[in-house]
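Section 5.1 Outputs to date
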Amino acid sequence: MRTSTFGGSRIALRRALKQPLLNAVARLPDGVQRAMFTPRIRRICIRVPLLRAVYSGCMRRHPIDLQYGTETSGFVDALALQRDPELAAQLSPYMGSQPTIIRRALDTLGDIAGYTFIDIGCGKGRPLIVASEYPFALALGYDISEDLVKIANANGAVMARRFPHRPPIRAVAANVADLAVPSGKVVVFMFNPFGPDLMAALLCKLEEGLASGAIEHLFVVYDNPVCGEVFDRSRFLKRWFAQMLAYDHHELGFGPEVQEGVVIWQSLSGARPDAFADRNRPIATKDSLSATIG
């Protein structure tokens, strides 16, 4: 019992220290932050448990925020997203995905004019911003954190002022059980938002829409597909695309990797002819936060 209590205290202390440390790093001058990411310093500091999160790169202000005056950078621990510890245990922490990865994935889909873009676990809305570059009918985000949803909607307002002719951006606070999937043609995007139980519940929602005919055609774009096997088992979906996609050079140091795996499925109803010969490449899950494409 003492060992368990001590272990729990250490975890609680680490969590209590991590966010202030990350916030402090985020306030450092950009030149200092760039120096921290030089290979020699990174090799040393990344071995320190508390400093590992710093090297996710997410605490640096991302170039897309500098470009648009938005706020999508940062790291939010799962317990800050949801206070219920059982539910928090199923969530991934918030960090923004890389715009280049999102664009390269969406570019594989072909004509998506009039589709609704849905970001599951939208956080501060970076994928919604990128999606607004495309001719979607709407860029809609769902997230369990009301605080992050407020930020996503504020970012949407910034984009609407700058680009009034782009598709509207809207974020809604909801958990998977409360999701209302729009009818018609839909593109669902995810950046590893949660674990297999919630992913299965999401798939059930999507399959209900496909079975009823409410969803005419569906693409599921899964960046870092840790729970990809959930969608591979679906009798309503088939693979469209599977590949490792590289960060653009100006995004290096603003995320935890240099490339990420992306797998895309499409619905059998309304299916487009297969376009990618290597779409069935296997997914290798390294841990709950990372997957690669074989």
